[in-house]
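Now for a concrete sample entry.
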Amino acid sequence: MADYKKWKNIRESSKGFLTPWEPTWYPGEHSLKRYLKLLTIYSQKRKNNTQYSYFIFNKKNELLGGINVFNIKKGISQSCTIGYWIGEVHANQGYMTRSLLALLYHLFNNLYFNRVEAACVPNNIPSKSLLKRLGFDEEGYAKDYLRINGRWEDHILFSLRKVSYHGQHK
C-alpha cells in the first residue's frame, strides 16, 4: 500500500511512453481500487506460484518500474515468461538491464527455471535491444500475438536458456 502514490505517479506521468507497448488503459486504470485489486490478484498468484510481480526501486526509494514473471510451467518444462515496464524519466539509464540481470540470476539459480521467454512488438527497439544485450535469442514471429493499446499486434518471440545464461550482458 505504501507504494500506491509512487506507482500511480510514475505510470500516469509515463502514459505516452508506455501505452504503445501495453494493453489498453481504461478510465480508473490507476485508481486506488484498481491498485488494491491488482495487489490481491498478484498476492494470490504468488501464493499459487503462477506469477511473481516485482517493483523496481533505486537507492533513493523511487519507484522506477516493474517486472512480471508469468506463464510459469514446472515439471518437464521449467519455463516462464517475463514482461516489464519502466517510467519514462528512468528509461535508458541501465536500471532495467540491472534489474533483469538480478531477476534472471534468481530465476535460473534459485527457482531452477531452464528457460525464460519474452516477447515485444517489432518496433519496440529499446526492448528488443535489451533482450539481445542480455543474451536472449530471437526465436520467432507471432502474428496478432497480444492485444496492445486496443489492437492485436505481432510480436517477436525471444528466449534465454539456462545453458546459455552467463549472468552478464553484452
Remarks:
- The helical segments are 4-13, 15-18, 32-47, 95-109, 125-133.
- The mean pLDDT is 94.
- The domain at 4-164 is CATH 3.40.630.30 (Aminopeptidase).
- The chain is about 30% helix and 30% strand.
